[in-house]
Amino acid sequence: MYRTNKTSFRRTIACLFFLLIIINIQADGNDVFDRIVRITNHKGTVYELLKDLSAQSGYLFVYDSRIIDNDKKVRVPKGEYTLRNAIHLITGNRCLRIDLLGEHILLRLSSDKPSGDAPEAKEEPVHHPFFTIKGSFTDHETGKPVPFVAVGILNSTVGTISNQDGDFQLTLPDSLRQHKMRFSHIGYESMDLELALLKDETLDFALKPQLVPLQEIVVKYTHPAQWLKEMLDHRPVNYSFTPVYLTSFYREGIEHRRENIDLTESVLQVYKTGYDKDAASDQTKLIKKRRFVNRQKTDTIFPKMRSGINSCLVLDIMKELPEFIGPHGSSSYTYTDRGVDVVDGRVVNIIRFRQKEHVKEPLYRGELYIEKESKALVEIRFEINPLLAGKATHMFVDKKSAGLKINLQHARYIVSYKPSADGVYHINHVRGDIEFKVRHKKRLFASPLNFWFEMVTCKIETENALPFPRNERLSPTRIFAETKHSYDKNFWENFNIILPEEELKEDLIRNLNEILVTE
Questions:
Q1: For 120-179, what is each residue's pLDDT tens digit?
Q2: Whole-angstrom Cα distance, residue 328 to residue 224?
Q3: How far apart are CA 69 and CA 46, in angstroms?
Q4: DSSP string for residues in 3-63
Q5: Closest CA to 49 of 77, 24, 23, 28
């Protein structure tokens, strides 16, 4: 279920538009709220009892967690009730306004004023060129956060993703308020909602796992190598072979002993060449940047990350074909069919790959998600074989102190692609997590040192994409955190970002007095 924060509309026209839609929705939904439901569990949390109503009615709930406490334990009499009365009984609030919003039920406080109140003065309409939608995603069955959900606007090239806590934020120009918003993630039902009803709201969405139709499971077996061949054969159709501009949000961080010690966030413009060129032909230009450093937590270790941006470009694996994709796969790998799943209503075949047992050098293992109809790669999740990761340490460490011993533990990656309205796929999200164990040679125990980087495409421009002038180009292989750029306290303006995870946010707040803001 998902919740929504009630916000007051500043403009009279916007308020009237919202109310007119809600009135129509209520008129269509009266029969729904008069349906009879049965309460069989007389006690539990509000979330558990509302979830039972969802199962009976087929509707998910939308509400603000500050109005309705999910974890509050309640006791209600067993019996049959109308859906409306059951909601009031479980929430303990008969002042809730209940509206039907597509396949969801919206719960919020009534805006009706007591008759004795003096009428409020009308505010002059104020034009706001942008509006923001925030929220989070959880699994409807487990209640756990769903990371990396694609958030986009239909018939546009604007979007973002949710972070590892399932939280997202999307800032949109007012010209898009009549459009629909879409959420999609492999293995879940996609969701489309009207932006006009959700603007300037905070939402909590529960994504329903999507079952794969039986006819998609009982299919003729196809060897995984055939899927790889068809995926590569369809590259000229599925991916852009003309240059485009991508407006991207990029961030990179360093953690030592589980403490965030270095965080850099930025907005980049990427000149992305066609898929017949390699990643070295892509270019980046810095638009905005800020950095937070807390070196008091490093315990005399001052790690630096090089080439995070370049890694994001190289990880566009449909440009830089790795050996495990090959033209027909590699003789060093074993490929197996892991069945099918669904993304955005489309069936995807899952191909698992791992290095053969006789191969002793550190290679990769992971899963490819290939859309059945278009043969396009929509996502890949892979990592260096953790059993042999230590042998790959030299691939990641450029320089180190003579008094330190460093050993790679894990190197994990996720890359996803998203189709635009014309069916052409573009890189959507890249994430890398590199974990080490670091030990002073004079000490007994090692400490964890983690590097991570992430880039998401927030906007795509296909017209007149030309290379950047040489003096505007950002070197993607340098230590990006040390790139000089003026700091703006009103930093993000209307750029879209990946929200910081709660743990990262708490670290920044807790150590605020110790953190250096690099300008």
A1: 444 444 455 788 888 889 998 888 999 999 998 888 888 999 999 999 988 888 888 888
A2: 10
A3: 7
A4: -B-----SSHHHHHHHHHHHHHHHHHHHHHHTSEEEE---EEEHHHHHHHHHHHHS-EEE-
A5: 77
